[in-house]
Amino acid sequence: MPTADGSNGSTGTSQSLERGLAILSSFNSDRPLIGVSELSRDLELSRSTTHRYIATLAQLGYLQQDPDSKRYRLGPRVLDLGFSAINSMDLREISAPYLRELSDETGYTVNLAILDGIDVVYIERCRTARPGQRDIDLNLHVGARLPAYCTAMGKAILAFVPEARLDELIDRIEFAPRGPNTLTSPAAFREELARIRESGIAVNDEELAYGLRSIAAPIHSHADEVVAALNLAVHRTMVAMDELIAHYGPAVSRTARDISLGMGHRLAPA
């Protein structure tokens, strides 16, 4: 039984806090807008109790009500928390100097992203002022999300996801065309991931948007899990795809390896 202050006497945890976090966790890219009745059913709470929690979260800025549908979406305070988490991540801190070095060495924009469901989330960017680079920026920023299936970084991570989990993720992906060369067949996508596992390099040849090319490599943790990926992005007029892979692939792989070592990963003996 919860005590008068809302805590769970048997475990010492706060039931009110658990419920509030459960409400926030109900929102994702597939369900950006949720109504009170839906949340009530999800949490198995009465509508009045659910509304009370929602009103509190909205007052604090963690939820916002859509004026047209009267349903709720995540508010700006959640974004603040997300950025705080990103800024405190060891991965971002360890990666930053390596990403800058790669960008300075090549003259191209370099990005770092993690996987969140079927999306990638950008956690670091090293942009350049090179002519033509702005044409492929796509208004991206730290915290931006893109579909993983049509990005080099997304494919670089998904290629190393355990098979059972990969099956679940592929089932959730809507393979819609985003650029001239988007892979829209799950079978073709699986073949592409197999190639990435062999080569260690993922490519995006105008799969996300017209004119955008990039190559990416996975980053491993101390537990040998792929936790992120970095990419080098160019406009199609800057360099041919074959040249991009041949000339810059080794530098991208080297940078991913250096960051992985910084994360505690140890390479298998040759």
Provide an overview of this structure:
With 270 residues, this protein is α+β, with helices and mostly antiparallel strands. The chain has nine helices and ten strands. Strands 7-6-5-10-9-8 form a six-stranded antiparallel β-sheet, with helices on both faces. The mean pLDDT is 88.
What topology emerges from the helices and strands here?
Blueprint: E1 7-8, E2 13-14, H1 15-25, H2 36-43, H3 47-59, E3 63-65, E4 72-74, H4 76-88, H5 90-106, E5 109-116, E6 119-126, E7 145-147, H6 152-158, H7 163-172, H8 186-199, E8 202-205, E9 212-220, E10 226-235, H9 241-262
Antiparallel strand pairs: 1-2, 3-4, 5-6, 5-10, 6-7, 8-9, 9-10
Helix pairs in contact: 2-3, 5-9
Mean of the pLDDT scores?
88
Question: What is the CA–CA distance across the termini?
Answer: 58 Å
Count of helical stretches: 9
In spatial order, strands of the major sheet run 7-6-5-10-9-8
Determine the structural class based on helices, strands and strand pairing. alpha+beta
Low-pLDDT stretches: none
Which terms would index this structure?
270 residues; elongated; six-stranded antiparallel beta sheet; alpha+beta; 2 domains; two-stranded antiparallel sheet; Beta-Lactamase; Arc Repressor Mutant, subunit A
Give a brief description.
The protein is an alpha+beta fold. It has helices at 15-25, 36-43, 47-59, 76-88, 90-106, 152-158, 163-172, 186-199, 241-262; strands at residues 7-8, 13-14, 63-65, 72-74, 109-116, 119-126, 145-147, 202-205, 212-220, 226-235.
